[in-house]
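Database export, one record per block. Field names are fixed; values are copied verbatim from the stored entry.
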Amino acid sequence: MSLIDTHAHIYQEDFDPDLEIVIARARQTGIEKILLPNIDLKSVDRMHRLADTFPDYCLPMMGLHPTSVQSDYSAVLKKLRQLFSVRKYIAVGEIGLDLHWDKTFLQEQILAFEEQLKWSIDVQLPVVIHCRDAFSYVMESLDKIGSRYLRGIFHSFGGSPEELTAILALEHFIIGVNGVLTFKNSKAEAAIRLCPPERIVVETDAPYLAPVPYRGKRNEPAYIRFTVEKLATLWETDARSVEIQTGRNACRMFGLP
């Protein structure tokens, strides 16, 4: 096992016209698995269909994305929680906190996040955390629920060396990096140079955050190679070594063979 896209929303409508071609390009790039984080109730069926169409290749997670948390979050979580008794998932995700655009539902986001952290402990699965402009809140929730009982990934890491240090202090957590790392003057470069190779995985977050030279366009799993190449440059190694190391890290985190 080597190259794994640990975070891609390719079940979204953006890929309806050419999904099979996108999957074919991913395979040609050497991607052996694509991991699918859920967003909300509406995305569940589309994600399930994709996972059923490409079993053992597209692997689903289950969770409620923080930007989808509203006043009815409790009822939504109840429906999503029931799905764990019906289907197999590889993680609880995508969950977390996002205060970038709106803080209206801050308390609801925190309560939803902490509830889903408890799911992770109950079902013994890793969490995939979305954290945007909310790092201190996320860390407080992890501490409250019990970080020693949890494991997971800080998805789309773009933080400071200080934030990386705080994450690495959590024994069972690692970071995920994507096309943002290829952007000019990326703030994450300084931190990524310091990250131990065994504490990082690669992702695309497709259709979002396409790397240079496709920045601003629809992202797709095949473009993960640009993030791999950037990591190789930062670590002063070759791309194949990055693929092997990050793939091994992903397998260990998600319990893949």
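Remark 1: The CA atoms of residues 74 and 252 lie 32 Å apart.
Remark 2: The mean pLDDT is 97.
End of record.
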